[in-house]
Automatic annotation (TrEMBL):
The chain crosses the membrane at residues 36-58, 70-90, 110-128, 140-164, 216-234, 241-256, 262-279, 286-307, 380-400, 421-444. Residues 1-20 are annotated as: Disordered. Signal peptide: none annotated. Residues 1-13 have a biased composition (Low complexity). This is O-Antigen ligase. It comes from Actinoplanes philippinensis. Keywords: Membrane, Transmembrane, Transmembrane helix.
Length: 453
């Protein structure tokens, strides 16, 4: 009786604290099952879908009293997001030399991009707040390495079956009038390659599973370092050999892509990694580089790859269009330098005349997209100086903040960010390249404090 009375006087027993750990599956599932998402017609649409789940889990964790941390330099990224929203106010403007449209006609693409920027922000915060017990850095590195293997596999598919495509389940579910639109089709219709005439005759350029050849090349550079790190950490000689074999095979679709930006990115990647190793006193890199260069040279001479590279360098068909669009972006910037125009615009006509535009017989003769030829030019044109400074400032701050990290993650993560600065001159980052950039940032961030949260 005394015990019962004492218990009653003490009041109800305290509630046990609920487990509010963050599950790894929203991140791991997005990456590991990406071939499935691509085949279903979800592709990049999986990012806002899983971001909604991540946001719910983050809010629930915060409500339970657990601390949520923001990545270092997040103020820069916040400035960028604010600029993206503020620039919508200029969506109805028609800069000189562009096709006039109402703001409502441009709104869908702008909302799509904003949704993707917000979704990848959630991915960054979520991946950065995961503990080692929830999703270890090593496992995340292996997942990113697997994405490189997927990129190489998609590149080989694009080479041997360039016309391969199919109607996805999501595409089947859409009304005919919706799925026939080019923008929607690019999101939900899986295909292996883009067929283009760059070196005489139409040839397939690898795109699977990333939708565009340029995106394929961008992701190639962003993901390659993670395969090297994953192989470095593995103890099995067989796995190391498979990684080396994958890197060697990857040269074939990389060359076949006819992607000069990719080739420049790989060169920058190798130089940067070698420089970081030299700073760390790892002089063995001085012997490894000549051996790799000799192997690559032999492959170029002994196979048709060398002739492909030479033919591409001799045919710069896109140079004129790129210069034209850069000039248009810079001219547009002078008209709205602070917040830009909220989105891209299509040019009136082509390079030589405003009367030359797209037609059934010449789809690429004009009406080019200003800001569609590189993330830097899109930032300047669509979001002005404020958005550009916020975006570049965030990733530049990360490079500076984590500059002393000489671990494999530190070098690979910073190498990915360095190549992204090169890629933004000719590639746009949404969606998957930016996703891999923020995951690299999250790994650098977690590595800076040993993964402790």
């Amino acid at each position: 009786m005394t015990a019962v009375a004492a218990a009653a006087h003490a009041g109800p027993a305290p509630r046990t604290t609920k487990n509010r750990s963050l599950p790894s599956w929203p991140v791991a599932g997005t990456l590991l099952l990406y071939p499935l998402w691509w085949a279903l017609g979800l592709g990049v649409l999986i990012f806002p879908m899983t971001a909604a789940v991540m946001l719910f889990l983050l809010v629930r964790r915060r409500a339970a009293g657990r601390t949520l941390r923001l990545p270092p330099g997040f103020a820069w990224w916040a400035v960028f997001l604010i600029a993206v929203v503020a620039s919508i106010a200029a969506l109805g403007a028609d800069p000189a030399g562009t096709v006039p449209e109402r703001a409502t006609e441009r709104l869908l693409a702008v909302v799509y991009k904003l949704a993707m920027y917000v979704s990848l922000t959630v991915l960054l915060v979520y991946a950065g707040n995961l503990t080692e017990a929830e999703l270890s850095r090593r496992r995340l590195v292996r997942l990113l390495a697997g994405m490189f293997v997927l990129t190489v596999a998609g590149g080989l598919l694009g080479m041997v079956a360039g016309t391969f495509e199919f109607t996805s389940p999501v595409e089947w579910l859409l009304p005919a009038g919706v799925r026939s639109k080019g923008f929607v089709r690019s999101l939900v219709h899986p295909y292996a390659a883009q067929i283009m005439d760059l070196v005489g005759g139409e040839k397939p350029r690898p795109a699977a599973p990333w939708g565009y050849t340029n995106t394929w090349g961008n992701n190639f550079c962003l993901l390659a370092p993670w395969l090297v790190v994953a192989a470095w950490w593995t103890r099995g000689a067989g796995r190391k050999l498979l990684a080396v074999l994958c890197l060697a095979v990857s040269v074939i679709p990389a060359v076949a892509s006819l992607n000069r930006g990719l080739w420049i990115g790989v060169g920058l990647l190798v130089v940067y990694v070698a420089f970081r190793h030299l700073l760390a006193g790892r002089l063995w890199i001085l012997a490894a580089l000549p051996l790799a260069a000799a192997a690559l040279t032999l492959a170029m001479v002994a196979t048709p790859l060398g002739a492909t590279v030479e033919a591409r360098l001799d045919n710069g068909k896109s140079n004129g269009v790129r210069s034209f669009l850069i000039d248009k972006a810079l001219d547009g910037f002078t008209g709205s330098p602070v917040i830009g125009y909220g989105g891209t615009r299509n040019t009136l006509g082509g390079r030589n005349s405003i009367t030359v535009g797209e037609s059934a017989g010449c789809e690429h003769c004009g009406n080019f997209t200003v800001g569609g030829n590189g993330q830097l030019w899109q930032l300047i044109y669509a979001h002005g100086a404020v958005g550009t400074i916020g975006y570049l400032g965030f990733f530049a701050y990360g490079l500076w903040r984590f500059r002393r990290d000489r671990s494999p993650i530190g070098i690979a993560g910073s190498a990915a960010l360095v190549t992204s600065f090169s890629a933004m001159l000719w590639y746009n980052s949404l969606v998957t390249p930016l996703a891999f950039m923020v995951l690299a940032y999250a790994l650098l961030w977690r590595n800076s404090d040993g993964g402790e949260r």
